[in-house]
Specification:
It contains one helix and ten strands. It is mainly β and 218 residues long. It is elongated.
Protein backbone atom coordinates (compact mmCIF):
# COMPACT_ATOMS: atom_id res chain seq x y z
CA UNK A 1 0.00 0.00 0.00
CA UNK A 2 1.48 3.39 -0.96
CA UNK A 3 2.35 6.14 1.49
CA UNK A 4 -0.55 8.40 0.50
CA UNK A 5 -3.13 5.74 1.39
CA UNK A 6 -1.43 5.10 4.74
CA UNK A 7 -1.51 8.81 5.54
CA UNK A 8 -5.22 9.01 4.67
CA UNK A 9 -6.08 6.01 6.87
CA UNK A 10 -3.96 7.26 9.76
CA UNK A 11 -5.51 10.73 9.59
CA UNK A 12 -9.01 9.28 9.64
CA UNK A 13 -8.12 6.86 12.42
CA UNK A 14 -6.73 9.62 14.64
CA UNK A 15 -9.53 12.06 13.87
CA UNK A 16 -11.57 13.20 16.84
CA UNK A 17 -14.66 13.05 14.65
CA UNK A 18 -13.95 9.98 12.55
CA UNK A 19 -17.62 9.10 12.03
CA UNK A 20 -18.76 9.16 8.41
CA UNK A 21 -21.13 12.03 7.60
CA UNK A 22 -23.13 11.77 4.34
CA UNK A 23 -24.11 14.92 2.46
CA UNK A 24 -25.70 16.12 -0.78
CA UNK A 25 -26.15 19.43 -2.52
CA UNK A 26 -26.32 21.52 -5.66
CA UNK A 27 -24.32 24.50 -6.87
CA UNK A 28 -24.84 26.59 -10.00
CA UNK A 29 -23.21 29.46 -11.83
CA UNK A 30 -21.18 30.30 -14.92
CA UNK A 31 -19.20 28.03 -17.26
CA UNK A 32 -16.42 29.31 -19.54
CA UNK A 33 -14.86 27.19 -22.29
CA UNK A 34 -11.32 27.67 -23.59
CA UNK A 35 -10.99 28.96 -27.15
CA UNK A 36 -8.80 27.44 -29.87
CA UNK A 37 -7.43 28.15 -33.34
CA UNK A 38 -5.69 26.24 -36.12
CA UNK A 39 -3.56 27.18 -39.12
CA UNK A 40 -2.09 25.48 -42.17
CA UNK A 41 0.35 26.85 -44.76
CA UNK A 42 -0.54 26.07 -48.37
CA UNK A 43 0.93 27.13 -51.73
CA UNK A 44 -1.84 29.73 -52.01
CA UNK A 45 -1.43 31.17 -48.51
CA UNK A 46 -2.43 30.54 -44.90
CA UNK A 47 -5.62 28.68 -44.03
CA UNK A 48 -7.07 29.68 -40.64
CA UNK A 49 -9.78 28.35 -38.33
CA UNK A 50 -11.00 29.26 -34.87
CA UNK A 51 -13.85 28.97 -32.43
CA UNK A 52 -14.92 31.59 -29.92
CA UNK A 53 -17.07 30.52 -26.92
CA UNK A 54 -19.49 32.60 -24.87
CA UNK A 55 -20.12 32.17 -21.16
CA UNK A 56 -23.02 29.90 -20.27
CA UNK A 57 -24.94 28.40 -17.38
CA UNK A 58 -23.67 25.49 -15.27
CA UNK A 59 -25.02 23.14 -12.60
CA UNK A 60 -23.25 20.63 -10.34
CA UNK A 61 -25.44 18.22 -8.33
CA UNK A 62 -23.50 15.97 -5.95
CA UNK A 63 -23.63 13.49 -3.10
CA UNK A 64 -20.79 12.34 -0.91
CA UNK A 65 -19.49 11.49 2.53
CA UNK A 66 -17.08 13.15 4.95
CA UNK A 67 -14.90 10.18 5.88
CA UNK A 68 -13.17 12.03 8.70
CA UNK A 69 -11.98 15.53 9.54
CA UNK A 70 -9.93 16.10 6.41
CA UNK A 71 -11.05 13.72 3.65
CA UNK A 72 -14.31 13.32 1.71
CA UNK A 73 -15.44 11.39 -1.37
CA UNK A 74 -17.99 12.84 -3.76
CA UNK A 75 -19.96 11.77 -6.86
CA UNK A 76 -21.01 14.54 -9.27
CA UNK A 77 -23.40 15.18 -12.13
CA UNK A 78 -22.22 18.30 -13.99
CA UNK A 79 -24.04 20.14 -16.78
CA UNK A 80 -23.21 23.27 -18.72
CA UNK A 81 -24.24 24.86 -22.01
CA UNK A 82 -22.29 27.41 -24.06
CA UNK A 83 -22.80 29.13 -27.41
CA UNK A 84 -19.78 29.04 -29.72
CA UNK A 85 -18.97 30.59 -33.11
CA UNK A 86 -16.80 28.56 -35.50
CA UNK A 87 -14.94 30.39 -38.26
CA UNK A 88 -12.56 29.36 -41.04
CA UNK A 89 -11.05 30.75 -44.23
CA UNK A 90 -9.14 29.00 -47.01
CA UNK A 91 -7.22 31.02 -49.65
CA UNK A 92 -6.69 27.90 -51.76
CA UNK A 93 -10.43 27.59 -52.44
CA UNK A 94 -11.37 31.22 -51.81
CA UNK A 95 -13.99 30.11 -49.27
CA UNK A 96 -14.91 31.07 -45.71
CA UNK A 97 -17.67 30.62 -43.14
CA UNK A 98 -18.91 31.66 -39.69
CA UNK A 99 -21.24 29.21 -37.94
CA UNK A 100 -23.07 29.69 -34.61
CA UNK A 101 -23.60 26.57 -32.49
CA UNK A 102 -25.09 25.56 -29.14
CA UNK A 103 -22.81 23.18 -27.22
CA UNK A 104 -23.61 21.29 -24.03
CA UNK A 105 -21.61 19.05 -21.67
CA UNK A 106 -22.97 16.42 -19.29
CA UNK A 107 -20.40 14.76 -17.04
CA UNK A 108 -20.28 12.14 -14.30
CA UNK A 109 -17.19 12.58 -12.11
CA UNK A 110 -15.94 10.97 -8.86
CA UNK A 111 -13.77 13.18 -6.63
CA UNK A 112 -11.57 13.01 -3.56
CA UNK A 113 -11.73 16.20 -1.45
CA UNK A 114 -9.02 17.25 0.97
CA UNK A 115 -10.09 19.78 3.63
CA UNK A 116 -7.68 22.06 5.48
CA UNK A 117 -9.73 22.43 8.66
CA UNK A 118 -11.69 19.86 10.76
CA UNK A 119 -15.40 19.16 10.38
CA UNK A 120 -16.37 21.28 13.39
CA UNK A 121 -14.87 24.43 11.82
CA UNK A 122 -17.20 27.15 10.56
CA UNK A 123 -14.94 27.88 7.54
CA UNK A 124 -13.47 24.88 5.65
CA UNK A 125 -11.43 25.44 2.47
CA UNK A 126 -10.80 22.36 0.34
CA UNK A 127 -8.96 21.03 -2.70
CA UNK A 128 -10.51 18.31 -4.87
CA UNK A 129 -9.57 16.17 -7.87
CA UNK A 130 -11.06 13.26 -9.74
CA UNK A 131 -12.05 11.80 -13.06
CA UNK A 132 -14.99 10.51 -15.03
CA UNK A 133 -16.79 10.74 -18.36
CA UNK A 134 -18.27 13.71 -20.20
CA UNK A 135 -20.72 13.72 -23.10
CA UNK A 136 -20.44 16.64 -25.54
CA UNK A 137 -23.27 17.48 -27.93
CA UNK A 138 -23.17 20.36 -30.40
CA UNK A 139 -25.87 21.64 -32.76
CA UNK A 140 -25.64 24.34 -35.43
CA UNK A 141 -28.04 27.24 -34.86
CA UNK A 142 -27.17 29.60 -37.74
CA UNK A 143 -24.77 30.06 -40.65
CA UNK A 144 -23.75 33.67 -40.04
CA UNK A 145 -21.55 34.20 -43.11
CA UNK A 146 -20.18 32.08 -45.92
CA UNK A 147 -18.57 32.30 -49.33
CA UNK A 148 -17.31 29.84 -51.91
CA UNK A 149 -17.53 26.16 -50.96
CA UNK A 150 -16.37 26.02 -47.31
CA UNK A 151 -15.98 22.78 -45.34
CA UNK A 152 -18.69 23.63 -42.78
CA UNK A 153 -18.92 21.31 -39.72
CA UNK A 154 -21.94 18.96 -39.62
CA UNK A 155 -25.22 20.29 -38.25
CA UNK A 156 -24.85 18.00 -35.19
CA UNK A 157 -22.01 16.06 -33.62
CA UNK A 158 -21.39 14.43 -30.23
CA UNK A 159 -18.79 12.44 -28.32
CA UNK A 160 -18.19 10.76 -24.96
CA UNK A 161 -14.69 11.12 -23.50
CA UNK A 162 -12.77 10.62 -20.24
CA UNK A 163 -11.99 13.83 -18.35
CA UNK A 164 -9.89 14.98 -15.41
CA UNK A 165 -11.37 17.50 -12.97
CA UNK A 166 -9.66 19.66 -10.35
CA UNK A 167 -11.40 22.18 -8.11
CA UNK A 168 -10.92 24.41 -5.10
CA UNK A 169 -13.61 25.78 -2.86
CA UNK A 170 -14.85 26.61 0.59
CA UNK A 171 -17.71 25.41 2.80
CA UNK A 172 -19.22 27.97 5.21
CA UNK A 173 -21.28 26.40 8.00
CA UNK A 174 -24.69 28.08 8.35
CA UNK A 175 -26.11 25.69 10.95
CA UNK A 176 -25.80 22.08 12.06
CA UNK A 177 -27.13 20.68 8.79
CA UNK A 178 -26.55 23.34 6.13
CA UNK A 179 -23.41 24.78 4.49
CA UNK A 180 -22.93 27.43 1.83
CA UNK A 181 -20.39 26.30 -0.81
CA UNK A 182 -18.31 28.18 -3.39
CA UNK A 183 -16.34 26.17 -5.96
CA UNK A 184 -14.03 27.00 -8.86
CA UNK A 185 -13.33 23.99 -11.09
CA UNK A 186 -11.45 23.10 -14.26
CA UNK A 187 -12.32 20.03 -16.34
CA UNK A 188 -9.88 19.00 -19.06
CA UNK A 189 -10.39 16.50 -21.87
CA UNK A 190 -10.12 15.89 -25.60
CA UNK A 191 -11.38 18.78 -27.73
CA UNK A 192 -14.02 17.56 -30.16
CA UNK A 193 -14.93 21.13 -31.13
CA UNK A 194 -11.39 21.72 -32.44
CA UNK A 195 -11.52 18.34 -34.17
CA UNK A 196 -14.34 19.63 -36.41
CA UNK A 197 -12.47 22.77 -37.49
CA UNK A 198 -10.66 22.76 -40.85
CA UNK A 199 -7.73 23.01 -40.38
CA UNK A 200 -8.13 21.31 -36.98
CA UNK A 201 -6.81 23.05 -33.87
CA UNK A 202 -4.36 21.50 -31.38
CA UNK A 203 -5.45 22.42 -27.85
CA UNK A 204 -7.36 20.32 -25.33
CA UNK A 205 -10.71 21.61 -24.12
CA UNK A 206 -10.75 23.27 -20.68
CA UNK A 207 -14.10 23.89 -19.01
CA UNK A 208 -13.93 26.46 -16.17
CA UNK A 209 -16.84 26.84 -13.74
CA UNK A 210 -17.58 29.36 -10.97
CA UNK A 211 -20.35 27.85 -8.80
CA UNK A 212 -22.34 28.80 -5.68
CA UNK A 213 -24.90 26.82 -3.72
CA UNK A 214 -25.72 24.75 -0.65
CA UNK A 215 -24.72 21.47 0.99
CA UNK A 216 -27.05 19.50 3.29
CA UNK A 217 -25.41 17.21 5.88
CA UNK A 218 -27.35 14.21 7.20
Amino acid sequence: MNRGVWILLLSCGLSASAGITPYAGAIGGIATLSADAGSQITAQGLSLSTYSPANGGALNAFAGAHLCNYFSVQANYIWNENDVVLSATSPSSGSFYQQARSTSHRAFVADLLVYFRPKESRIRPYLGAGGGLTHLSSDATALLNSGGTPAVPPSSFSSTRPVFRSHVGIDLKLNRYLDFRYSFSETIGKNDISKHLSPSAPRRLANFQNLFGFVIRF
